[in-house]
Amino acid sequence: MERRLTQRGRARRTELMTCAARLFSDQGFHSTSVSDIVNTLGVGKGVFYWYFPSKDDLFIEILRGANRDLRRRQQAAIGDEPDPLVRIELGIRATMQWFHEHRSSFTLIQFARTDDRFTDVLAQNQEVAIGDAVRHIKDGIVAGEIADQVPEVLAEAVVGVTERLARTYLLERDEPVTEVADAAVAFCLNGLKG
To answer: What would the pLDDT profile of 128-184 be if each residue is shown by its tens digit?
Structure first.
């Protein structure tokens, strides 16, 4: 059963998640203990376990929170844009900017892919991303702007290209975000138009 938290409780929970995300990114998930997290914040272990049953549960919440934050950024960028291709472009650009600003979250997502304990939450996050892209792609197909192909396949391609370029050129090579976003947009939109 999930606890109802006061505003102060929500702030403390967020503080634990933020601290843990930073430590996981800097030191690695396996090298970071619950003691490291609470010692960094100057609180007891009881505070940690009040909010999270385990370090794994905390990490899962960090992954979910990152996905919610990314999705909010995408939705804010897209707004009420009526043109499906423009929505896709705005979504790609918002995603690249978010990855650029949240390098540590991107690092944690990459780590989570290597550990079976986190595959379910990553699959859920990916399902949401693909679902969002499918909706815009279907609208583009109906409008005649996107080639009539399987929307799910096209969505996987857009999400995959965006993520791969972000990992390689933003995270690993620290290239300018605008240039990487331009490349992703050009490639994806040209591919969608057929």
So the answer is: 999 999 999 999 999 999 999 999 999 999 999 999 999 999 999 999 999 999 999
Domain CATH code at residue 183: 1.10.357.10
Q: Please tell me whether residues 46 and 118 are part of one structural domain.
A: no
Could you tell me the sign of the dihedral formed by the alpha carbons of 179, 78, 158, 116, in that order? positive
Residue 58 falls within a domain, yes or no?
Answer: no
- pLDDT bin (cut points 50, 70, 90) of residue 4 is confident
Read off the pLDDT of residues 112-143 as tens digits, 9 standing for 90 and up. 999 999 999 999 999 999 999 999 999 999 99
Instruction: Please name the amino acid found at residue 175.
Output: E
Estimate the crossing angle of helix 151-165 against helix 177-193, to 10 degrees: 160
Among candidate residues 16, 122, 126, 1, the one with its CA nearest the CA of residue 60: 122
- 86 and 8 share one domain: no
Distance CA 8, CA 180 (A): 40
